[in-house]
Amino acid sequence: QLQLVEAGGGLVQIGGSLRLSCAASRGTLNNYAIGWFRQAPGKEREAVSYISSLGRNTNAADSVKDRFTISRDNAKGTVYLQMDSLKPEDAGAFYCAAARHVSYSLWASSSEYGYWGQGTQVTVSS
Predict the structure, then answer these.
(1) What is the pLDDT, as a whole number, of residue 124?
(2) CA distance between the termini of the chain
(3) Which residues is 71 bridged to in the sheet?
(4) Which of 23, 56, 64, 108 has the fewest beta carbons closer than 10 A?
């Protein structure tokens, strides 16, 4: 059973940067497509970014496309989400999710992913 662990969240000022990571505490991410989702208090979980198992395909929500970069290092079994120029509306709990296969057109659908981490909190302050 794949178990995911996120790290890298914290408190950052507006305009600052954070790099989140997603790794497996059990199993390996290497054969899985990975999605990053976030959930702000009182709001629904929303998709942020996606990367295919080999890293050949990526996608991101329009709201973060110019500021967030997803990548993966399969040698380390880790997926990263580099977040730059952070805004207050970026704050929330960030979750990584994994699936053996995700249809590219459905990358933002949480139901495509069968494995989820516990989340890491991102707070953006002025």
Answers:
(1) 97
(2) 41
(3) 80
(4) 56
